[in-house]
Amino acid sequence: MNVTVTGATGFVGGALVRALLAEGHKVVGVKRPSSTQPTSQHPSFTWVNGDVTDPTSLHGLFDGADWLIHAAGMLGQAGVPEQAYFALHEQGTNNVLAEAEKTNVGRILYISSPGVLGPISGPPADETAPLAPSNPYERSKAAAEQVAQVYASAGLPVVIARPEFIYGPTDLHVLGLFKAVRDGRFFTINGGQNHCHPTYIDDAVSGMLLALVNGRPGEIYHITGPEPVTFRELGQTIAAALDVPPPGLNLPRWLAWLGATGLELGMGLLNKEPPLSRTGVAFFSEDRRFSWQKAHEELGYTPQCDLPRGVAETVAWYRANGLV
Fold this sequence. Notes:
Helices cover about 40% and strands about 15% of the residues. By secondary structure, it is an alpha/beta fold. The strands form four sheets. The chain has a seven-stranded parallel sheet with strand order 3-2-1-4-5-6-11, with helices on both faces. A two-stranded parallel ribbon has the order 7-10. Strand 4, helix 2 and strand 5 form a beta-alpha-beta unit. The two termini are about 40 Å apart.
């Protein structure tokens, strides 16, 4: 198949490209003109310039593609205006799908996030849970999903995958977390009893490609790791892989929130990203647990990598590259 991937310079997009090439597909990676072009020697891979926020730059880019994966996006971080998230996620998705509508693309995968459901107070949420985003990133991804659903309703073969908290080799987004554990700076909030749902990159890629090939247009699929874990368990698992003492510091949420507010203000004056943001405090003090049963039943997806093995693989890559 001929496959075009937006966001191909990113952690997730790059992993999808490598997996598609390994399966024998011909892949075109879309990157912004200002992005550094990673070196690629694969004969079946080609880079093209295109900015999903500029519809004119996308003209003709998807011609000849059998499959299209829209993975371009930006993770939540302090100091980014909310309109920037909406321009990239909501309007960017509209631009991509409007251009795809002019072609004969047979399958389209939009990469979203279970974060559109916001914090989960009860059992693991499935795909029928209502949208309840709680921060700018989540709100923009929820808006992008609604755009994708409009196009799917009009007949465009769009499938939505929601991979959660992806980590693994080559990922630099969670490197700061691993360094904080290594240096004894990681702390839990309210006892670290809230849950997150880590997903190793190989599982995430497997699930997303299954959604691309087998998913029903207009449907949403959660792609997550085997089970949620508490933040205390997460910190302890990372510490064990790094061979350092487990985190011992704990703060009440109000104090962590106060500290994050001060860091955001202070670092903002210096035009630097704070080591802890209010969004980060919210993430570490809320529950996010998701069911992958629909993906299992309809796509054949079963996550294979548990947290200790995934963290060990990630630490090994960080060490091999001099990062921890």
